[in-house]
Design goal:
By secondary structure, the protein is mainly α. It has 9 helices and 2 strands, in the order E-H-H-H-H-H-H-E-H-H-H. About 55% of the residues lie in helices and about 5% in strands. It starts with 16 loop residues before the first strand and ends with a helix.
Length: about 170
């Protein structure tokens, strides 16, 4: 599950990781997950609203969901502007041991296994679930992107960090 980043400060030698999914893919997936999962807290909203309405209204984790977790806004209910949320989430990311994008999750798992001295079992399933854009129009995608600007900025930072780590000796 998702754990507030501040929990790591309570542990003597934490090894932490996070996987960021492409923001548009994640937001749309959040909608469809809520739509089909009757136990999801946003299920009723997903059934009542279109994709765009769901995201514009901020239901579920559809609007900057990753930044809201990393900045702990999701857990505290605090409100903060995009610039502040990006700064707080970026600070949290700087304290994460491993960070990657969903498309690179298999590489992350291999890196963690190597660091821990554990052989990665060859039959572990792939975590790359692929894209779930469904039939979103270009106008809908633009609105989804607008409501996930902070997540997009975080994604770019993590992609750069992960690429630098792969190039490191």
């Amino acid at each position: 599950g998702h754990v507030p980043p501040s929990i790591a400060a309570l542990l003597p030698c934490p090894v932490t990781f996070t996987i960021l999914r492409h923001p548009i893919d994640r937001a749309i997936s959040s909608y469809w997950c809520a739509y089909f999962d009757s136990t999801n807290g946003a299920h009723e909203a997903a059934r009542r609203f279109s994709l765009v309405e769901f995201i514009v209204e901020g239901h579920g984790h559809s609007s900057n969901g990753q930044a809201r977790y990393l900045s702990e806004v999701f857990f505290t209910g605090e409100t903060m502007g995009d610039a502040r949320m990006l700064q707080v989430a970026s600070d949290a990311l700087s304290r994460v041991t491993y960070a990657c994008m969903m498309e690179q999750a298999d590489d992350l798992i291999s890196g963690i296994c190597t660091a821990a001295g554990v052989d990665r079992t060859a039959d572990l399933p792939s975590l790359n679930k692929g894209r779930r854009l469904r039939d979103a129009t270009s106008d809908e995608l633009a609105i989804v992107a607008e409501h996930n600007r902070v997540d997009a900025a975080l994604y770019v930072r993590v992609r750069g960090r992960f690429q630098r780590a792969l190039l490191a000796p």
